[in-house]
Structures are given as C-alpha cells and as structure tokens.
C-alpha cells in the first residue's frame, strides 16, 4: 500500500507565551497543497500569533513546523520566505510613497543574488496579475490605491516571491462584498494551481462558501478541526465562543427616550460639498439630519464619499461649501476639540491611522483627548489616580481583554483595539456618534457587543450616524437609511419601508 504524502504544511505543538500569558498552547495545524483552510476564533484567540510563528516573526517556546515532511528551522522571516510561505497581514506592510513594482521588489536585493530591475519586475507583475485575475498597475503609487488594490499588491508580492503557502489574515474585513467575491475567485484559482491557503475571517458565511476545512482556536488551544461541508455557521460560532450568540437588532432594543420623529435634529448637514486635495468633488451637495434617539445608516459601496462625509462632520477634513450644525451650533469651520465639547464621538474607520497611538498604553490612549480636562489634570499636572480610574472603568465596561491598563495598544488583538476606540468614544455619554465601519475585524461576540452599545446610545437619546458597507449591519440597526453614490445621496428609506432590492439598485447608482 502506498503511504499518503505528508501535508504541505504541518505545524505541531506550537506554544507561544508573552510574559506569563499563553497565546498559543500546543497548537496543531495541517494544510495540504490545494486546500483552503479556515483558521477561526474569537478576538485574541491566537490566530495572528500562530501565523507570525509560521512567517518566522516569532520564535515559539515549543513546537515544530514541517514543510512537505521536513522539519524546518523557525524564527527567520527570510527562511520562511525561501520555504514559500507568503503572508498578507491584517495591516498591510507596504510603503505608501513607493510604486507597486518598487514595493514588490523591496527587500529582494538583500538576498544578495541580484538587484531587481524594475522594468523586468513590472513585466513579471503584469504576467502574474493576468494569470490570477489581479487588477494591478505596476507603476501606480501605493498611496493612490484603494484598500482592495493594496491588498492585491500584498498577494502579488507573496506570489512574486514564489509563495506556495499563502496566509491571509482577515483579508475581507476591509473589502466590499463585490471585492470579496473578486478575492475569492483569485484564491480559488491559486488553490487550483496547488497553493495551500490559510484564510482567517470572522465572517462565517465566507468561511462556509470558500474553505475546505476549518480549525477553531479558543484561548490559544485548538478546540475543533472539521471539514467545512460537515459543519454550519451556527455550529462554528458555537465552537468559537463555547456558547450560542445572537446578534442584536433594532427591534430587540429598548425604544429611545425621545421618539425619533418628534426629536430635534442633533446633527444637520446642509448642502455640503467637499473637494479633495486634487480638487475632485468627494461629497456632492449632501443634506441630511440625524435626530436625537435615531440611528441613520449611510449605505453605499466603499469609496462613494461616505468616509469623506464622516470626516467633514467630525472635523478631520475641509468643507468646500455648505454647513454643518451640531447641537444647534454651526461647526462648519470649528476645530475637532470644539465638536467633541458639543458631544461628538467618532469611531473612525481606520483605527491604526487615525484613532490609536500603538506604542502607548491602553490607559494613555483612553485618556488621550481628555488629558487637559478636569478631573484628569489639575494645574497642568496629570492626576494619575483619575486617569487610572477611567482606564479601568472603560476596560471593564467594554470588556477589553489585556494584561492590564499599561499594556501597549499595539500588542492587543485587533478586536480588543477596536474595543479601546469604542470605549473611549462612548464612555463620555456623547450626543452624536459618528461610527464608520464600527464592527470591522470583530468576532461574532464583539460585533454583537458593539451593536448593543450603539443601540444603548440610541436608547439614551443620542443620535447615531452609522456609515457601513455591510448591508446586514445597516439593516439591523438603522431607523432610516440613506444611500450614497458618487458623493451624493441618491435615495432614502425609513425602516418601515425597507426594500433590500431597492437599496441594492440605489447602491449601484441606478435610480429606484
Ligand atoms: N507582543 C505581544 N505582547 C503581549 N501580548 C501579546 C502580544 N502579541 C499578542 N499578544 C496577546 O496574545 C493574544 C492573541 O493575540 P492574536 O493577535 O494572536 O489574536 P487573534 O486571534 O489574531 O485576534 P483578532 O481576531 O482580534 O485579530 C491576545 O490576547 C494578545 O493581546
Ligand atoms: Mg488577528
């Protein structure tokens, strides 16, 4: 009888500790060539940690990695690349000022074999892009690409280096449904050519649609390995959390203190137009109002001006014309601090770029915007007890899982970072919450938590502007939905009159 060939990737007994904390506890993971394998688990379960071991970025305290049966040395990123391990990280690692081709070649010359010639590289990039259906211009600057475009560059970078084991850490967290479909086509094409793919995602319907096998981690341990076809989304959620989870909906929430239709507008945007640095119109004569006790959902395919609208409202970008009235005050040209003083809270889309200072502690990030205010400072001195008290309160209320308030935010799992952002924004009892993709990268339980928090703000009488490309999220939480297309609002719907089909048409820019 023929012996079965060993799996392409075989990780055994991986153990990783940070101080006294065990992030991976005897983890086994085997993936065959041509297999798409889902790695699941709650925020902080240890998924990214395991993948960093595979990529040679972390040396485990115990365990071994075999590639096609051979035990390989660990702890060298270069060695991992040579073995054909390619990684698309949760946070892209591209240099924004360089071109696609320059980024792809970056670091290659240090192998000492050759200095890459950019023309040859560009040609090879075009070839690879064509083979796997990746839409990429080798000469484009990274800073000018969409997030989906940058992700394709990361995939291409791995392929360029000969990856045969490709790891994608939450690749769809930043994509629209259409873009995610495009990515799945690429991944299926790669698997058909024999690439082993490890796919990390919190979206269980994607896991069901795309993958062949699943491994579930809970608190650093493998709790299940199964064929995807032999399980279902509900079963997976139960394995991840160890309990049943229900996602909250507006119907289940307590009614707001002020009925939305009777409420005064907490936010009025009038005829707002915003141009970007190149003079292109990003927000096109938008008018909308958010009442106290009301959640207004802004739906739309990513890149249709939603982000620019949110940035103008919170004061992060300039307004070309029109007005923004917050709590009765014209804040069109007001600095951010003034808006925060009027009761604005912002949950930004990109927590790494705009929300968190990663080397700083959880405590300092939480108090960041308030450090000069009483009771946190007196006579120019920081009052440590008040600051520590706030940090502990927010961490407890928002279930931030960490070793303590002094752990640096950069070392938290993605979901816990988002809880810090959320806790900071919502713990001040805001009157208007501008939430942009608030559940991005969060697990099922944490998503339910965020949604419950937004509904609680609504019940407390705050207005919420919810910008999301996830239609499910918009539908579950909004009293009213507006749809943006090419910078303009192209339609509006109240909760009572929601039609998903009409919403879809409006999102595609077709009058409905
Ligand atoms: N450098 C570090 N120092 C201290 N703790 C760390 C470090 N890196 C990770 N951890 C901890 O290890 C645990 C696992 O983190 P990891 O990033 O692997 O989680 P994850 O499963 O990828 O979660 P998410 O779904 O939120 O991305 C977390 O509790 C995290 O705080
Ligand atoms: Mg992670």
TrEMBL record:
Positions of the ABC transporter domain: 9-244, 267-511
Keywords, alphabetical: ATP-binding, Cell membrane, Membrane, Nucleotide-binding, Repeat, Sugar transport, Translocase, Transport
Cellular location(s): Cell membrane
One Gene Ontology CC term in the entry: plasma membrane
UniProt cross-references to Pfam families, sorted A to Z: ABC_tran
Similarity section: Belongs to the ABC transporter superfamily.
Record protein name field: Nucleoside ABC transporter ATP-binding protein
Protein's organism: Kaistia soli DSM 19436
Lineage of the species this protein comes from: Bacteria, Pseudomonadati, Pseudomonadota, Alphaproteobacteria, Hyphomicrobiales
């Amino acid at each position: 009888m023929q012996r079965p060939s060993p799996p392409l990737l075989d990780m055994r007994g991986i153990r990783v500790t940070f101080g006294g904390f065990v992030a991976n506890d005897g983890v086994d993971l085997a993936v065959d060539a041509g297999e798409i394998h889902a790695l699941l688990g709650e925020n902080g379960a240890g998924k990214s940690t395991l993948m960093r071991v595979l990529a040679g970025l972390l040396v485990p305290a115990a365990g071994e990695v075999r590639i096609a049966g051979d035990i390989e040395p660990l702890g060298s990123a270069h060695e991992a690349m040579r073995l054909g391990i390619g990684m698309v990280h949760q946070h892209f690692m591209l240099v924004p000022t360089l071109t696609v081709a320059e980024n792809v070649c970056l670091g290659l010359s240090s192998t000492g074999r050759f200095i890459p010639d950019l023309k040859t590289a560009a040609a090879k990039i075009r070839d690879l892009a064509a083979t796997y259906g990746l839409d990429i211009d080798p000469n484009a600057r990274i800073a000018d690409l969409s997030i989906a475009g940058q992700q394709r560059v990361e995939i291409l970078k791995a392929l360029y280096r000969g990856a045969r084991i490709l790891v994608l850490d939450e690749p769809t967290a930043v994509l629209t449904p259409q873009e995610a479909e495009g990515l799945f086509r690429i991944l299926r094409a790669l698997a058909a050519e024999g690439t082993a793919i490890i796919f990390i995602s919190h979206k269980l319907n994607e896991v069901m649609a795309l993958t062949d096998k699943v491994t579930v981690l809970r608190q650093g341990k493998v709790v299940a390995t199964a064929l995807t076809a032999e399980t279902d989304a509900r079963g997976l959620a139960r394995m991840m959390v160890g309990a049943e989870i229900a996602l909250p909906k507006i119907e289940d929430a307590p009614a707001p203190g002020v009925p939305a239709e009777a409420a005064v507008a907490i936010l009025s945007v009038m005829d707002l137009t915003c141009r970007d640095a190149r003079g292109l119109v990003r927000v096109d004569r938008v008018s909308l109002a958010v009442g106290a006790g009301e959640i207004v959902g802004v739906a739309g395919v990513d890149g249709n001006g939603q982000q620019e609208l949110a940035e103008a409202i919170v004061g992060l970008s300039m307004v070309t014309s029109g007005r923004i009235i917050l709590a009765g005050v014209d804040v069109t040209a007001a600095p951010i601090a003034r808006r925060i003083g009027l009761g604005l809270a912002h949950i930004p889309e990109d927590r790494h770029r705009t929300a968190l200072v990663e080397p700083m502690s959880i405590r300092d990030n939480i108090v960041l915007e308030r450090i000069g205010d009483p009771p946190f400072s007196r006579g120019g001195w920081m009052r440590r007890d008040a600051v520590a008290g706030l940090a502990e309160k927010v961490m407890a209320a928002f279930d931030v899982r960490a070793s303590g308030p002094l752990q640096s935010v950069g070392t938290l799992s993605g979901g816990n970072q988002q809880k810090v952002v959320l806790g900071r924004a919502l713990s001040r009892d805001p009157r208007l919450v501008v939430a942009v993709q608030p559940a991005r990268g969060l697990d099922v339980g944490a998503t339910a938590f965020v949604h419950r928090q937004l509904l609680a703000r609504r019940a407390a009488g705050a207005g919420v502007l919810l910008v999301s490309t996830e239609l499910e999220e918009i539908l579950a939480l909004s009293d009213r939905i507006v749809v943006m297309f090419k910078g303009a609002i192209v339609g509006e719907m109240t909760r009572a009159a929601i039609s998903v089909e009409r919403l879809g048409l409006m999102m595609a820019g077709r009058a409905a």
